[in-house]
Amino acid sequence: DVTHYNQTMTGCNIQKCFEEVKKSSEISKRRQEVDGFNSENRWKKRGISLVNTMFGIAFTAPHLNQTGALVHVYVDGSVLVSHGGVEMGQGLYIKTMQVASSVLKIPIERIHIQETATDKVPNTSPTAASAGSDLNGAAVLNACKIIFERLATYRERFPDNGWDDWIRKAYYDRVSLSAMGFYITPGIGYDAATNSGHPFNYFTFGSAVSEVEIDCLTGDHQVIRTDIVMDVGSLLNPAIDIGQIEGGFMQGYGLFTLEELIYSPEGTLYSRGPGMYHHVPRHR
């Protein structure tokens, strides 16, 4: 399969998502029920729809697909991580701490995150394009691997002593316990003139079915049920990513049902982006 910008698709699971959500939502059966409801009710109507989605992961401006990380290990064995990503509730900090914990093979409680600052990691790219965990997690991975490799001789000579002892011995041997990590997304590039290249590192896929009911007299509405199936690759933290999927659905629901859409005379949508999300629907 090839996209309209001529990037070859690999690992495309959209068909799998589509078939799975069709089955879990029982959309064929429920569509008949919706038709029956609508034929029996004059002022309340229901609708049901299935929509697929595919989203490319990477900045289409190649120079933004880079970031750094700074990792310090202190003589007491604690670890301080700085990277170029901004935490805004999406769980980036906990994910990068998980990466450090996995590489250094120490409990996550020993690892601390410092607020993002350009005096620690310069020239940071925006935390956007759904690439924050990929970029910053990989930079932290790189820095932690450097430090872990410096400790190899102590792990080999004193296999039973553990992390704290290895750190103390390295410190007294004047081994650097600080490292700068760096990561660039490989193979990124797109030529608009020829409409060819590889603008995205990979894609996420999803299918969703929603059934809604509208009061034709008052405009009151409710979502009766929504089924979502997403393929977002290998998860660093499933609980966070499920929360992101559910939260994204609620934000989109609020944007299209509770916000006033403002357009320019030429038809450009002005009210777009997180800054326009004033009303998030609540469960009742």
From TrEMBL:
<dbReference type="InterPro" id="IPR046867">
    <property type="entry name" value="AldOxase/xan_DH_MoCoBD2"/>
</dbReference>
<keyword id="KW-0408">Iron</keyword>
<dbReference type="InterPro" id="IPR037165">
    <property type="entry name" value="AldOxase/xan_DH_Mopterin-bd_sf"/>
</dbReference>
<dbReference type="GO" id="GO:0005506">
    <property type="term" value="F:iron ion binding"/>
</dbReference>
<keyword id="KW-0001">2Fe-2S</keyword>
<comment type="similarity">
    <text>Belongs to the xanthine dehydrogenase family.</text>
</comment>
<dbReference type="InterPro" id="IPR016208">
    <property type="entry name" value="Ald_Oxase/xanthine_DH-like"/>
</dbReference>
<keyword id="KW-0560">Oxidoreductase</keyword>
<protein>
    <submittedName>
        <fullName>Xanthine dehydrogenase</fullName>
    </submittedName>
</protein>
<dbReference type="Pfam" id="PF20256">
    <property type="entry name" value="MoCoBD_2"/>
</dbReference>
<feature type="domain" description="Aldehyde oxidase/xanthine dehydrogenase second molybdopterin binding">
    <location>
        <begin position="21"/>
        <end position="278"/>
    </location>
</feature>
<keyword id="KW-0411">Iron-sulfur</keyword>
<keyword id="KW-0479">Metal-binding</keyword>
<dbReference type="GO" id="GO:0051537">
    <property type="term" value="F:2 iron, 2 sulfur cluster binding"/>
</dbReference>
<dbReference type="GO" id="GO:0016491">
    <property type="term" value="F:oxidoreductase activity"/>
</dbReference>
